[in-house]
Amino acid sequence: MPNPEARWGSLPFAEQIAFFKDKVNLPTATWRDLLGAAHDRAFVVAGAMKADLLADLHAAVLKGIEQGTTLAEFRRDFDSLVAKHGWSGWTGEGTDQGRAWRTRVIYDTNLRTSYQAGRHAQAQAVAHRRPFWRYVHNSTVLDPRPEHVAWHGTILRADDPWWQTHWPPNGWGCRCRVETLAQRDLDRLGKSGPDPTPDDGTYEWLDKRTGKTHTIPKGIDPGWDYTPGASLAKPLRELIDQKMLNLDAPVGAALWKEMAMPETLVAMETRRAVEEMVDRVAREQQYHGESLTVHAVAPTTLADLSAVHQIELQSAGVWLRDEELLHALRDTKDARGRALPAEVWRDLPRLLAGATPYLDTLDRALIYAFDLPDGTGKVVVRVNYSEKVRIDGKRERITANFVRTGGLVERHNLEEQRYVELKK
């Protein structure tokens, strides 16, 4: 009988190590918080919400990848980290069986996805010489999925769209892999070309957290219908956008505070994306339904809104849509010097990060006020508002906080009774 404790994969290699090292640590409450290709850029452990805990867990897994340490050693590291950080309430806590299952999931899932991401990078690099890929099912799996067994030996071209959703691993515990083949390999097998692309149909899976229904190929677990590593060209900022929508406001606020500090990758990508949006809208004088997260309400501001003003935000993210931006830039021409110029909008993420927040008690909106060379600027943010945004190429209606307008203001006007300064 196959040994369930047998090591899987091979010695670590540069592409695998680089893939895992480059991941950022993101807090998540459940495994549904982050699905599919978003895992290419993020290291997550469901229920681990503290930055220092995540950093230590990331380091423990990285040790396993770099040094080839065993699951048993990772379990010892896990126990010490749980004690060090006082982590409780994690799934599997309280029994030896639960601990064994949870640590195996964390360790194996990260080793296998990083391994396959590295192998995919290598396969892509030699695709001009070895343009065929063969699916290989691992025969040591004790309870194999029928579809994975059926796919064993299937040879398709490297650019067949089937691989976009079927590159292993294709579910929890999946040990399948892919081999690269040259034309001479097919000749040796007596094949004149690739096999027909499998078509096993699809099924619908409802994400109970978000209410969204996902269409997934049969034989693949929810959240596994992607190729590890293939989305690395996608900006990290887009991952944060997705994450901010799924997190409760306090968690999202804490995430942004850590991830969007000056000179971090998220901050730089956000700044660049805003500059490009402003330049495009100013040049074309039209909008395309583009939107992005430019800021997040600070944790202390959230607490102030909740405790003092009984306002509970559904999420912490502050979004800017190019439709409102277009109106703001047009206002620049018509508002007799009281509108914000394009260069201010280009610098919006930095200005919001240092701005003083106010609550407009009449409109129930947030006002962010910041110093400019020629006065005081303000941006009005409508909270818990429903708007359409484009996420992963699809327009969806979300409830979030949206920049509505901006302009110059006399600082003393913010001392009117309707405005209440909030904690930063």
In short:
The protein is α+β, with helices and mostly antiparallel strands and 424 residues long. 39% of the residues lie in helices and 21% in strands.
Descriptive overview:
Helix 1 (14-21) packs across helix 4, helix 3 packs across helix 4 (96-125) and helix 8 packs antiparallel against helix 9. The longest helix has 30 residues, at 96-125. This protein has 14 helices and 14 strands. The protein is 39% helix and 21% strand. A seven-stranded mixed β-sheet has the order 8-9-13-12-11-10-14, sandwiched between helices. Strands 4-3-5 form a three-stranded antiparallel β-sheet. A two-stranded parallel ribbon has the order 1-2.
What is the topology?
Layout: H1 14-21, E1 24-25, E2 42-43, H2 51-67, H3 71-85, H4 96-125, E3 132-136, H5 146-151, E4 155-157, H6 163-166, E5 177-181, H7 183-188, E6 202-206, E7 213-217, H8 236-246, H9 249-259, H10 265-284, E8 291-296, H11 299-309, E9 317-321, H12 322-334, H13 342-346, H14 348-354, E10 356-360, E11 365-372, E12 375-391, E13 394-409, E14 419-421
Parallel strand pairs: 1-2, 9-13
Antiparallel strand pairs: 3-4, 3-5, 6-7, 8-9, 10-11, 10-14, 11-12, 12-13
Helix pairs in contact: 1-4, 2-3, 3-4, 8-9, 10-12
Order of helices and strands: HEEHHHEHEHEHEEHHHEHEHHHEEEEE
Percentage of residues in strands: 15-25%
Give Rg in angstroms. 25 Å
Distance between the termini: 61 Å
Number of helices: 14
